[in-house]
Amino acid sequence: MKGYPGIALFAGLLSVLPAHADERDLWSFAQWTGSHDTRAFREMLVQARLYGVVPLYQLLRSASDWRLCNAEPFAVAPPDQWPAVRSTLHLLKTLGEQQRLKTYEVVSAYRNPTLNRCAGGARDSAHTRAFAVDLLLPAWADPRPLCEFWQTQGQAWNMGLGRYPSGRIHIDTAGYRTWGGDLSADSSFCPRLAPSS
């Protein structure tokens, strides 16, 4: 906008950010941590050199239906699942380093089984037994580099890659598989490559 460079810059920044998930922002996270201890989890991330791969307030978001399900807005995965947390974060870090996944917002990560059931999650969801993230990409983002990574390197990472009708993308390291809107591999935006003859 001519004469208003600050507004033009702000509008430009908005166009590169993912859609905002909900009200579970940094402010509400700070309020939540006032009565919830996250120190051991943060220390684990620091020791693994994974702190900051995903902002902590996003990494600890529970299911988006937390309010409907009368649950906590944030949740720390149990310590026995922390190896899976590290595995998924290593994958996200690698995806970022390879420019396969750039700007995104994590909208759901660990869910306890009760919340997962209420939110309509799969009975054996990786959100409850391992560690998975659901994320939003900006409207302009091309998911093909993510698909190409899954096709060529996903099996080595034991990577799950799905996309829901809402547009959310699910990533975990709990099994090499893919799915789309009807939860089958046939509807995935990222089909398996045909074996070369």
Structure in words:
It is a single chain. This protein is α+β, with helices and mostly antiparallel strands. The protein has a single domain (19-187), classed as Muramoyl-pentapeptide Carboxypeptidase, domain 2 (2-Layer Sandwich), CATH 3.30.1380.10. It has eight helices and five strands. Strand 3 and strand 4 (169-172) form a beta hairpin.
> What's the level 1 CATH class?
Alpha Beta
Major beta-sheet overview: 5 strands, mixed
Average pLDDT, all residues: 87
Work out the radius of gyration. Answer: 17 Å
Outline of the structure:
Pfam families: Peptidase_M15_3. By secondary structure, this protein is an alpha+beta fold.
What attributes does this structure have?
alpha+beta, Muramoyl-pentapeptide Carboxypeptidase, domain 2, 8 helices
Write the topology of this structure:
Layout: H1 5-16, H2 26-33, H3 39-47, H4 56-59, H5 82-97, E1 105-108, H6 113-118, H7 126-129, E2 132-136, H8 144-157, E3 160-163, E4 169-172, E5 177-179
Keywords: Signal
Protein name: DUF882 domain-containing protein
Signal peptide: 1-21
